[in-house]
């Protein structure tokens, strides 16, 4: 297992700069009043392909040799990594194969195809995804770019908190959603070098709290096909992300489904930005744990904005 | 009739700076490809109180003498001006009375009350609004701040295009929605001084096209209670806004209801910003008139983001 270093982050940042946005940081006086903290929202919903995953995917794709690249890339993904890899492969002009659950939002499938990716559908479970994916790899000879358990991907995601640390002076805490742990691992990698005093919190849906249980147990616990509105956060930790989580994360906080939907709607209403349910989990946990963050300067990673506008969660029930 | 000057705009900008945001300009490579133009979206949906109207309202409120201010302010408004005036009055700590149609979106009523404004309801027609409003003025002695036919308001709105002109080099055109014409008049006032070569287009719903018909007829035509999804654009021109429209506007373009809703959804989906139907009318007209804008650098005023998230227009039909 290769553990990426901060030099890998610097290299990644230079490599991906032509292909991704330096996203803005937004604030909301309403949400500051509501939480008692100063929140700085790093808006990766404005990122290319609509999510931070364009960073890691671009680092992997543009780091390939020409020979490797000619055979294309492949991945399995509940959504944003698949379309980000399609985006990056499209920029380089190489093929991209994406194994996705047949239940993934239509908006995400359309977006993958819109960037030129080929979708191969599987059942919505980790076990089915891995089986179908093995067939795709054997058939194409494509380079596997894992959604998060890949040092190239983590070094790419790590560029996000490097920008945040430049954009906001004197951060006390950073809160990011955790699914497989790619964003959190990148955040740990960057901040443990640049700002080791910053506390890093992971935020997770209670209904898919395998990372929180892993954190307390001291070893990886994986669930098969948990159900949550935060559909980007269903996947389990792997050894590389577990390395960063157990070493650098201060705590993993959880929120209930209705709390996530309320936080999402509040952000849309007051900040006027479109973001997906996964991205609302940090605010939901901050609102539940005001004493942890009161009076502090808190970076919040808004991880993505790819949501099916015809199926908004507060309009279904 | 006092016609505001560019010196009034400079004074307004200094007066309102502590109370409003210098909003960002966003771009979208997807929308540039789709239109064949380079679009620069001036995001007043991120403005205080969620709309550009905070500029004009703040200029009016903070320009009052202490004696005038003590009696408070009053207005009639289909929504955003009412809540912006409530916002500005709240910042100064004076009373604000708002006459609103009973059919106005609940989100806008809640927002007015949230800023401390008092709502007096009327029927959804210009005639009813004016009758109820006369009673309110007589009762309170408050200072009337008209939503648009007021030189203080127009000078305030004019600060928006002053920022846009600073933020984007070499603008060829600006497109803004037109209802009563306050934003368009402010745009004319600023650009006729700072960048007289820039073409100014007004964008209007076909179902509330009184401004377009006025423009062709050469005199003001007013409709009573037109119906359109772009609920901020139902009001007619008045003499002060007509002055600027007939003098400086290149053309008034119109769009159908479904074109407005499609443009709105496209902006939400691709730009990840929440904006209201009125703000989508410019893009709807650009998409209908690609030859007019092809290859040009076009500023687009995103006028506001106050939308009822429980009643999105693409989910009602």
Radius of gyration of chain A: 18 Å
- What's the total count of β strands of chain A? 10
Number of helices of chain A: 14
What is the CATH-assigned architecture of the largest domain in chain A? 3-Layer(aba) Sandwich
How would a textbook summarize the main sheet of chain A?
6 strands, mixed
Q: Under the CATH scheme, which class of the largest domain in chain A?
A: Alpha Beta
Unreliable segments of chain A (pLDDT under 50, ≥5 consecutive)?
Answer: none
Pair of chains with the largest interface and how many residues each contributes:
A-B, 20 and 20 residues
Task: Describe the structure concisely for a colleague.
The structure is a homodimer of 317-residue chains. With 317 residues, chain A is of the alpha/beta class.
């Amino acid at each position: 297992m290769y553990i990426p270093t901060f030099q890998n982050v610097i290299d990644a940042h230079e490599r991906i700069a032509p292909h991704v946005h330096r996203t803005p940081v937004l604030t909301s006086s309403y949400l500051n009043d509501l939480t008692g903290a100063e929140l700085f929202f790093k808006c990766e919903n404005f990122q290319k392909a609509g999510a931070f995953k364009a960073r890691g995917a671009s680092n992997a794709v543009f780091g390939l040799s020409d020979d490797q690249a000619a055979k294309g890339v492949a991945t399995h993904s509940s959504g944003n990594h698949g379309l980000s890899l399609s985006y990056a492969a499209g920029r380089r002009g190489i093929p991209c194969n994406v194994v996705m659950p047949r239940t993934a939002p239509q908006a995400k499938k359309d977006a993958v195809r819109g960037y030129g990716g080929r979708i191969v559908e599987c059942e919505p479970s980790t076990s089915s995804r891995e089986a179908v994916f093995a067939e795709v790899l054997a058939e194409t000879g494509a380079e596997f770019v894992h959604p998060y358990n890949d040092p190239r991907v983590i070094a790419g995601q790590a560029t996000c908190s490097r920008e945040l640390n430049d954009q906001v002076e004197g951060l006390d805490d950073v809160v990011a959603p955790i699914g497989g742990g790619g964003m959190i691992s990148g955040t740990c990698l960057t901040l443990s070098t640049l700002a080791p005093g910053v506390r890093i919190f992971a935020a997770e849906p209670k209904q898919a709290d395998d990372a929180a249980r892993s954190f307390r147990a001291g070893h990886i616990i994986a669930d098969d096909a948990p159900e949550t509105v935060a559909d980007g956060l269903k996947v389990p930790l792997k050894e590389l992300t577990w390395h960063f989580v157990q070493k650098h994360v201060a705590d993993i906080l959880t929120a209930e489904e209705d709390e996530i939907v309320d936080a999402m709607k509040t952000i849309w209403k007051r900040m006027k930005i479109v973001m997906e349910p996964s991205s609302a989990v940090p605010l939901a946990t901050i609102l539940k744990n005001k004493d942890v963050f009161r009076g502090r300067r808190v970076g919040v990673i808004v991880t993505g904005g790819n949501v099916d506008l015809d199926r908004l969660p507060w309009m279904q029930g």
